[in-house]
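Researcher: Please generate the 3D structure of the following complex. Treat every line as part of one assembly.
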Amino acid sequence: MSALLDTAAPLPGLPDPVHDSQAAFRAVMNALARPGKPQKLDTGDFQAPAPLSNTAGAIALSLFDYDTPVWLDAELAGSSQVWQFLRFHTGCPITDDPGEASFALVSDAEHMPPLSSFNQGTLEYPDRSTTIIAMVDKLTGAKAVTLSGPGLKKPAGFNASPLPPSFWNELAAIHAQFPRGVDMLFVTQKQVAGLPRSTRIEMKGR
Amino acid sequence: MTGPAESAREAAEGEYNFAYLDEQTKRMIRRAILKAIAVPGYQVPFASREMPMPYGWGTGGVQVTASILGRDDRLKVIDQGSDDTTNAVSIRAFFEKTAQVETTTQTGEATIIQTRHRIPEKALSQDQVIVYQVPIPEPLRYLEPRETETRKMHALAEYGLMHVKLYEDIARHGHIATTYAYPVKVDGRYVMDPSPTPKFDNPKMHGMKALQLFGAGREKRIYAIPPHTTVESLDFEDHPFKVQTFDRPCAICGAEEVYLDEVILDDRGGRMFVCSDTDHCEERRAAGHVGEAGGNPLEREGAA
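Model: Done. Output below.
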C-alpha cells in the first residue's frame, strides 16, 4: 500500500503515442524477423523511471495493456515509480508469478530467474507464452553462440551481456521444445535485438 | 483539393486515428504479429475488428497493414497482380484518407505491399514487408471441419491427411490438381495455407528476403513467414511439385516465365494472354519490350 502513496505523479508517457509506439513496434518486429541483428530504437526525449531503461519503457508502453499480465524482476518490482508508471500508462496487471506473465521486464539480466519458470505456451496455443524484455549493457563482444534458422540467411554469431552463465544452455533447451518456448528481446540504451523461439542456437566450443 | 498538410490537420481534429484503428486494437494486433513471426506458419488468433468494408474484401490484410504502417511508409496494394482493380483501388484510397501515407504502384518503390492473391514478379528486398489477404487460413479446414481437431493436428504436426488429399488428386487426375492455395510447410514444421495465390508463386515464398505477414479478418487469424525461411510445397518423390507453364510469352510485353491472365478481346473468340502483374508489364514496356500484339490492343481501340 505504501508504495502507492509515497510518490508524486508518474513520469509522462511517449510524447507522440501513436507514432512513437509504431516506431518502437517496427523496431521490435524487425528484431524478431531478423534474429540477433540489433535494430535502432530512438526514444528521443522520452524518459522512463529508473531502473527501467528508456528503450524498455518505450517498448512496454507500445505493447502492454490490460490484456497482458506483466512480471517484473526484483529491482523493478521494488520501485514504486516503475509500478505507477506502468499501471498509469498501460493499465497492465502486474503479477508475481512468471508462469502467468505475457511479458517479463528484467532490469538485472545477470540475475534473471530460470527461463523454465516463464510461461512456455502449450502445443495447441504456443502463442500464450511469455516474451522476455531483458535490459543488457551491450550486444557486442565475443560471440557466445551461433544462430541459424528463420530470418537468417546464413548462420550468425551473437552475444549479449551480462547474462547468467547457464543462460544459453537454458535457452537452447527451451528452443528444443518448439513450438513451445519463450521469445527474448534484448534492449540496450539505443538498440533492440530479438531472439524468437524459432532460432536454432549452437554454443561455441561444442 | 486538400493537400497532405491540410488532411493531416483534419485527422488531428478527430476524423480518424492514424490508419483508422484505435491504439488498443493496434497493440493487440501487433502482439499477434510478434508471436506469428516467432512461430513461423502458426496461426495466431486475434480479436479481428469490424472494418468499413465487408469480410472477404481484405479486412484481415487491412488490419495488419494498419498496425504496421508508419508515416514514412510507401504503400502498394495489388489485387490479382493489378494495381487498378476495385479492391486495390479502394484499399489504397482507404489508407490515403486515414493515414495520409504515400502510395505507389511501383513494386520497387513500396515499403509495404498489401496483396490479394499474387506475389509481384520482381524479387522483394529486405526493406519490404508483404501483407497477404487471406480468406481461409486453415489448410486442413476442408479436410477436417472441427477447429479443436485441426488445432490438435497442428500441435502434433500430424499432416498425413493433407498428403492423402494430394494423393487422391493423383489417383483421380494422374497429377496433383491443386493449382492455387497449394499447401506449404514452413521451416519444416507447420503446414500453412499460402492464401489463394496461384501455385506459380509458391517458390517465391521460399527464402524470400522480405517479411511475409498474413491476415484473415473473418477467421481472426494472423500468421507469418520471416525472411530467409524454408518454405516447401508439399509433394511426393514420384510426383514432385511443379508450377504452371505457359506456351506463349505476354502478348503486350513479351515477358516469359511470368504468370499470365487471359483477356477476352472481342465476341469472335479473340483473346490474349498478358502479365497478371501490371507493374511488371508496364516496367518492361517502358524499357522497350514489345510482345506479339505490338502494344496494348485495348489502348489502341481507346477501350481502356
